[in-house]
Amino acid sequence: MNFDDPIDRRGTNSTKWDMMEPLYGVPADTGLSMWVADTDFQAPAPVLNKLREMTDHGVFGYTNLDATYKGAIQWWMQTRHNWTIEQDAIFTTTGLVNGVGLCLDTFTQPGDGVVLFTPVYHAFAKVIRASGREVVECQLTNTDGRYEMDFDAYDAMMTGSEKMVILCSPHNPGGRVWTREELQGVADFAKRHDLILLSDEIHHDLVYPGNTHFPMPNVDPSIIDRLLMLTAPSKTFNIAGLHTGQVIIPDPKLRARFAARMAALSVAPNSVGQAATAAAYSPEGAEWVDAQLAYLDANRQVFDAAIAKIPGLSSMKLESTYLAWVDFTDTGMERAEFTDRVEQTAQVAANHGTTFGTGGENFLRFNLGTQRARIEEACERLTAAFGDLQ
Ligand SMILES: Cc1ncc(COP(=O)(O)O)c(C=O)c1O
Q1: Whole-prediction pTM value?
Q2: Which of 202, 234, 237 to mutate to test the pocket of ligand 1 (most atoms within 8 A of CB)?
Q3: CA 310 → CA 333, 349, 383, distances in Å?
């Protein structure tokens, strides 16, 4: 549980580190990778022990893990989120981007509009477009460095062709933990416009002290007949490569439609991802998550303090996630210039804000899920790269 332990992921086929140079032009040997959302931490001991046990046994045949796996998910959601779920409500997908694609496929038709509150996690728009649906961007309002929703404006934009709204709760990027009132606003919006509400709550375990995450079914039980919930252990425990996520559907009618589509496409979970999930969602896993959160909290404070000292830069106050959303608007620089300074001068790879949709143009997203020494190094490099603004 020592998150400071140096870990070098270069040369391990890591997307984050080994794709940094081809994608961002940031040299692999000297660069700092702060883009794609996984962390540089080892998974917790119960997960590693379970995977060792499996490899020691050495047989990877068909398995029947469902009851253990689903029981662990039920336990986690109940104890960590006060959310009661039935085992039959749980479907397993190869991650949540896959889950979004399957939900679009089941509950919408080509040409339908799908509402996103932008800027938002870029893969939503990618999957919506790839499946022949239309992205309907409802832009978040940036009020003093904090995203808010403007339902009057969104109501005025609706044309009747929209069939689904995708909410990212907590929000990536921007790090908002939506309040109960804001979530009720989203539920009311979905009802007013007769939309299926897909609530992606993958970041729900990474909520900093002083904020409370509310699972959507607890906010408004009357939304359940149009609600699809997405959760996964991948961000919480850094096991995204195991490609295991959950679509949780409380309503039996929606569940039956989804089950039919899953059966037709023959989507079935793999034993390693299921076993890792069951091991992670445990008391020992919970202890590790609490320690990780404290570490990430300190990382965000170190990063925010450094960014706050660079004139023209501001980092949104993260209420959740390890993804810092930095606004470069007040530098007065063109996007190409501030991006070039970050990538070429500081040699730091961060996600480009443009990929998150309207409103993200002047931002870069920095992944803080790494050893503190790297955060400090990134702060020094960014301070120097914008040193002429002092
Ligand atoms: C909101 C959100 N949903 C889904 C994902 C990706 O999920 P998966 O790796 O399970 O496909 C991410 C990754 O950053 C995310 O931020």
Answers
A1: 0.97
A2: 202
A3: 14, 18, 6
